[in-house]
């Protein structure tokens, strides 16, 4: 005898099956018109060559070797407003392999964004994206994972795919792109990449949809996501006029499209070696202002692997012959310093006073989302620390159940 | 950051010591013991103050938590199931508490029924790593959220008291 819960679950499974069938019949119609795989990128300008305009970059001398793009594997974590467009751009550019990670389903509420279509509602985002992208460019290899990377088991698998999911099985991916919408997932990617020494790029759009940013993080060389409180591009909106009572977050396809474009441009420059690769590029939509900067890692970063990567990097740097290039990086200050930050509204006096931890100077238009206390500071409460009870974890669990 | 009652309640929750996450072995068990000690104390404090409002328990690894929270409005008790996973980056990042049964009923939620915390919560948490634990998350995150959202949902007729359902 099945319970109501089990039956509900079964109904949901069957609904999803139906959606997949519908999509398959749609796809068969598409696939009739989709092209076979292309063995070699050609620069011949003919209607049937999907790469001719990309290969023109090589002819013009902007990119030395465009075909190299086929040798790279990129992981996109988060296939939402920014991630899906990022994946589409990379697919159209002819990237070798894309690994997609997301645990969410396509919903009709996502339709104010680009990429997904109403008939895909109910499908997992990674599955729906793979279907569409494969049709756009069958030359790309896809690997998709429908799970939340922040839980313990999934995180282990995620780390394994970053280390072994390259174009050649067993080789690491070339770049990880964070297109997630929350702090937990960014910190999880940061943790993984610090442990693995994996270069990655962060991207984000503010909750009011009026600013965004991209950031290149090379463990040991540039500041990691845990080196300082999250950076925010000041959107120059008066906090008092910003009404957040009714909603969590707004989103606009324009802002997300701009940020995805900035991200993939930086990816192409990084992978194909042209132009200047940005370490941090912000976008202020209200004023059309694009601040840039670079930030060195914090020797006191809370992530031990970040500190380890910094030592590795310094060892390598010491062995390298000195170049005569003057770096214009912002120095991270490590003694307590008074600094004028834009704190979140309604902070108390004590909170402000505790906000004097080590902070780097930032260029105009970029601020930290909050301040951290100095090492000895305690902004919390004068509450006592948990006692040294002799009870085991099992006993405590049982005690909690009883009250 | 929060009202006087919340401040007082938080100041009476024991602070944690062990900076350890679910990927650590021995130290995580130590952290879990501290989590339980703080939670037990907080629930006992709430009961003593006649403000008992939640219960939580976890799987044996302490990575998945679930339980109930309730809110009294016009002398009626509204009860909800809560759940969350401990992220690998805990305690640097707080877990995202979810009330799945309210998913889609309020804009103050992210997908999956994860509650939308105030702008003040994250900075406050970040400043108190690793001293804040799950009891602080309940007191500063879920508690204030329920106090604002539940009366609103009731007034909009989006949630009904269990006794009135189907009548
Ligand atoms: Zn760091």
Which percent range fits the helix content of chain B? 25-40%
Beta content of chain A: 5-15%
- Average the pLDDT over all residues of chain A and give the rounded result: 84
Largest interface: A-B, 55 and 59 residues
Query: Based on helices, strands and strand pairing, what is the structural class of chain B?
Result: alpha+beta
Termini separation of chain A (Å)? Answer: 34 Å
Mean pLDDT of chain B: 90
Portion in helices of chain A:
25-40%
Strand runs of chain A, count: 10
Q: Which class of secondary structure composition applies to the elements of chain A?
A: alpha/beta
Tell me the Rg of chain A in angstroms. 24 Å
The DSSP helix count of chain A reads 10
- Shape by Cα distribution of chain B: globular
Label the overall shape of chain A.
globular
What is the string of helix and strand elements of chain A?
Answer: HHEHEHEHEHEEEHEEHHEH
Q: Count the DSSP helices of chain B.
A: 4
| Element pattern of chain B in H and E | HHEEEEEHH
Ligands and ions found: zinc ion
Quaternary arrangement of the chains shown? heterodimer
Can you lay out the helices and strands and say which pair or pack?
The complex is a heterodimer of chains A (403) and B (167).
Chain A: H1 4-31, H2 52-59, E1 73-77, H3 83-93, E2 97-101, H4 125-136, E3 141-145, H5 152-164, E4 175-178, H6 183-196, E5 200-205, E6 211-217, E7 231-233, H7 253-272, E8 280-284, E9 292-293, H8 304-319, H9 349-354, E10 366-368, H10 393-402
Parallel strand pairs in A: 1-2, 1-4, 2-3, 4-5
Antiparallel strand pairs in A: 5-6, 6-8, 7-10, 8-9
Helix pairs in contact in A: 3-4, 3-7, 5-6
Chain B: H1 4-11, H2 26-48, E1 54-58, E2 64-73, E3 76-85, E4 109-110, E5 114-115, H3 121-127, H4 134-155
Antiparallel strand pairs in B: 1-2, 2-3, 4-5
Bound molecules: zinc ion.
